[in-house]
Write a structure and sequence with these properties.
alpha+beta; 7-stranded mixed sheet
Length: 306
């Protein structure tokens, strides 16, 4: 699995929050839910995303905004429209004065808004817990990213209003598909961080794939340089220039990121994960993991399972 595939393989929505909003101007929603990752897809009409720090960005039909939390922001019919509704953690909605609005704005199955015939149709999906989306993905993303979401948006729009057996699982997978579709398009533009663009370099890209595909190998810079056919010094210099860190630092980060993902899988043990990612013992993995993540692998796993 290459680095991009591993990055996109991370998201796994589980009972994700999904809502269709039907709105007539003027409308403005202040989002303070602290979700780690949110997708806002325009089905019909347009809207503006107004970050607290940054310029407003317009969403046209077919656009998807990906917003990396937990910072608050506003979504409105126009940047000048003041907030009327506040979305709190747990998707609780209220007026600016704190009065609850959920029942007053409920328009049916996963549908909400200020007008059942509203000309603006917006679908919002959030990943509720950081464990559902890879930390590598969150670190790679800008605070706000807008790309086209066709052809997934029409399918999601048709499914979100259904109330059938297994519907929650269907919607979770569609949310994942929409996220992956948008991110794959973004990575293709070359706007992604340098380390992902480095995969296209004939020397560094090959070295990165060797480290990614066989993290358990006892790699050294010399051994890696011999495999890609350049000198040790040339590889170290070019790798650092394109990726932003030396090969062995990158390998350590990759191993610990994989370990974090593997620790979420059922029946994984610290010992089995250590072997898979290239650490000689559970103790060695635990020491490195705690240094980077701030907690032991056991505590990290317990937190991801809760």
């Amino acid at each position: 699995m290459d680095q991009l595939a591993a990055l996109l393989d991370g998201p796994r929505a589980r009972g994700a929050f999904l809502l269709r909003s039907l709105l007539t101007p003027p409308w403005s929603l202040r989002i303070e839910d602290e979700a780690p990752l949110t997708l806002a897809a325009m089905v019909r009409g347009d809207a503006w995303v107004v970050p607290d720090a940054g310029e407003p960005v317009r969403l046209a039909p077919g656009d998807v905004a990906i917003l990396r939390g937990p910072d608050p922001y506003t979504v409105a019919d126009h940047p000048a429209t003041g907030p009327q509704v506040v979305i709190h953690p747990g998707q609780r909605c209220s007026t600016l004065e704190g009065e609850p609005l959920h029942q007053a704005m409920d328009l049916g199955v996963r549908t909400w808004g200020n007008d059942p015939g509203g000309g603006t149709v917006l679908i919002t999906g959030t990943y509720q817990f950081e464990g559902e989306v890879s930390r590598r993905l969150l670190d790679a993303l800008p605070p706000l990213l807008v790309r086209s979401g066709d052809p997934v948006i029409p399918l999601l729009g048709a499914e979100i209003v259904k109330d059938e057996p297994g519907q929650e699982a269907v919607l979770d997978r569609l949310l994942d598909l929409l996220l992956i579709t948008v991110l794959r398009s973004w990575f293709a533009t070359g706007e992604a961080p340098a380390r992902y663009r480095a995969l296209g370099d004939p020397v560094v890209g090959r070295a990165m794939r060797m480290l990614q595909n066989n993290p358990a190998h006892r790699w050294t810079v010399g051994a890696l340089a011999a495999e890609v056919g350049v000198s040790r010094a040339a590889l170290a210099r070019r790798f650092t220039e394109l990726v932003g860190e030396p090969p062995m630092a990158y390998l350590t980060e990759w191993r610990l990121a994989l370990a974090a993902d593997l620790l979420r899988t059922p029946d994984a043990t610290v010992g089995s994960v250590a072997r898979k990612v290239g650490y000689g013992s559970p103790f060695a993995l635990s020491a490195a993991f705690k240094r980077v993540h701030g907690v032991s692998p056991q505590r990290y796993r317990a937190g991801a399972a809760s």
